[in-house]
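User: My advisor, Dr. K., asked me to get a structural model of this assembly before our group meeting. I'm new to this, so sorry if the format is off. These are the inputs:
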Amino acid sequence: MQCYAFLVHKIPVGVLGASGYAGRELCALIAAHPVFDLAFAAANAQRGQSIRARGHDITFIAPEDVNLEDAEMVFSALPHGTSLEWVCRARDAGARVVDLSADLRPGNGANETVPYGLTELTREQIGDARVVANPGCYPTAILLALAPLVTAGLALPGATISVSAASGVTGAGFTPKPDLMFAEVVEDFRAYAIGNEHRHLPEMNTVIRSLGGDHDIVFTPHLLPVARGILATIIVPVVDSLENPASVWREAYEGEPFIEIVDEPPALRDVVHRNVVMIHARRLANLREPALLVLAAIDNLMKGAAGQAIQNANLMAGLDETMGLPA
Ligand SMILES: NC(=O)c1ccc[n+]([C@@H]2O[C@H](COP(=O)([O-])OP(=O)(O)OC[C@H]3O[C@@H](n4cnc5c(N)ncnc54)[C@H](OP(=O)(O)O)[C@@H]3O)[C@@H](O)[C@H]2O)c1
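Assistant: The format is fine. Below is the predicted structure of the whole assembly, which you can bring to the meeting.
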């Protein structure tokens, strides 16, 4: 048997914000990736500290010690507001960049327009992009759930779409906060950012408009006392009573490696540590006007962050989109 492993050209990649939840997940995925090779992992307060990811010891270096020229691909998992400057620096140093922050996402007021990395909807724009704006975690679940209905003109024009979504605590980042301490979240369940003011709303509204939708979204997020995972419960008024609603999603996402249309309501345990979105749709009974219930579940750190970032980086590098990703 011949061994071709030595022929594989490794692509050096760097992670900024590597010590955060999304950054750590990226480091773990890169450590197991057949082609990407970690050139640097940068942190701020945690500079100098080490973690073990998939059998590899990774030491975080200070951002000012990073040599951006060392990487052909850079992932920025920095907080929004901080990320954009580093994205520009990495791009100017010649790297291609996946930005996990909100800074360049649609609806966030960025002067610069870059492709939006909701891969299943924007795949054609990703391959040649120098910079890609990776979507937010809630928008990933909610937009992939809504897109087939909106693009097919089945969501009632002008209607209000109601979204109630619950996220695990890693969605709030690694920085310690009193209201995220174990005793504050365990055995509890609460809504936050109530009143339709969550910072992901402009991103979702802008993308829905770009898909031809004319809808209001009422979005109420909740904090779930688990580490990871998002379950979105979506109610959509529709133009007609659909005999077989799931067929709309099955048709739209046929052949998609990371989208699963399921007959039973998905649970978080079906999706955690996987780069998938699981979608379930059914008619709602006992209403005067037709409406659908759509449930979407993802792992916020995988399909909602690091997994989707690797999916986009694979396309940018001309690799198989699924490479190094747990389906
Ligand atoms: N968590 C999620 O589920 C999720 C999902 C989708 C997208 N995102 C986005 O991904 C990004 C990272 O999120 P996260 O949850 O991983 O956040 P996080 O856990 O708070 O991590 C933030 C990272 O940025 C570093 N950092 C903070 N300020 C910095 C500065 N001024 N200069 C250099 N490095 C700095 C931190 O380093 P130190 O800790 O060492 O200070 C840490 O590595 C955010 O933009 C977020 O919106 C997160």
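One thing worth pointing out at the meeting: Helices lie at 21-31, 83-92, 119-126, 137-151, 182-185, 201-210, 246-252, 302-316.

User: Perfect, thanks a lot.
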